[in-house]
Every structure is written in C-alpha cells, then in structure tokens.
Amino acid sequence: MKSGDLDTKKWSASRKYQRFKADLRLKVILWQNGRLEVIHGRTSHLGQGGIGVTLTRELELGTIVTLEFSLPACEPFQIPAELRHRAGFRCGFQFLELTATQRAQIRQFCNELPMEVAAATR
Fold it and tell me: What DSSP line would sit under 6-50, residue for residue?
C-alpha cells in the first residue's frame, strides 16, 4: 500500500466537524404514541454537526427529535436532530438544520473547550 493510500483512508474516516467535550443540560422533545414527550439528559460532546448525550431512557435509531439546550450568553437552542448512534442511554444526534447564527455560536463556544479524543486513539 502506498503512503498516499493511507492518507486518503485516514482522511475519509475522519469527521467533517471536530467534537469537543461539553457538559450541558439538555432536553429531547419528541412526539411518541400520539403525545409530546420530554426526555432530560446531559451532553458529553458537541460539534457543529451534532451532539453526544446521555439520556434517561433509550430511543430508536433514526428517531427525529428537537434538542433544546443553552450555551452561555446565548438564547436557548431548539435544533431538529436525528438519532444516528446509540449504546444504551448514550446517544449521538446529527443536527438536521442549524441557522448561520447557531453554527457561529456553537463554533465560538467549542473554541473554548478541550477536543474530544477519538476512541481508537485512547
């Protein structure tokens, strides 16, 4: 294997947005069985593309929700997201829509946080 092949594989396996450690309170809002449900949780990491959380109950992969959380000195966020990864109560949500302002606020907040270390490099 040529060294260029390794670089391409490493790049293609990397994330589009870096993750940062973040401990914030969060609400997951969804319609389930014909009624509105709110699940409380805490974030573990945050990036411009999504958020990792620990919830008080399990959800099915692919569930579409509204995530509600606050960053310091910002209006509360309400962001539509899809559950993309799950291990018990630990979940990874991909943001479906972010405004330019929300993306900028998340980027600014993350610039002050430590980076999340990928599991493969621990």
Answer: HHHHHHHHS-SS--EE---EEEEEEEETTEEEEEEEEEEEE-SSE
The three-state secondary structure class of 88 is coil
- Asked whether the beta carbons of 98 and 80 are under 8 A apart, the reply is no
Instruction: Label residues 80-111 b or e (16+ Cβ within 10 Å = b).
Output: ebebeebeeeebbbebeebeeebeebbeebbe
pLDDT recorded at residue 18: 81
Q: What confidence tens digit (pLDDT) does each residue in 11-55 have?
A: 334 567 788 899 999 999 999 889 999 999 999 999 999 999 999
SS3 state at 97: coil
Question: Cβ of 55: how many Cβ atoms within 10 Å?
Answer: 18
- Mean of per-residue pLDDT scores for the chain: 83
The two tokens of residue 8 are 């391409």
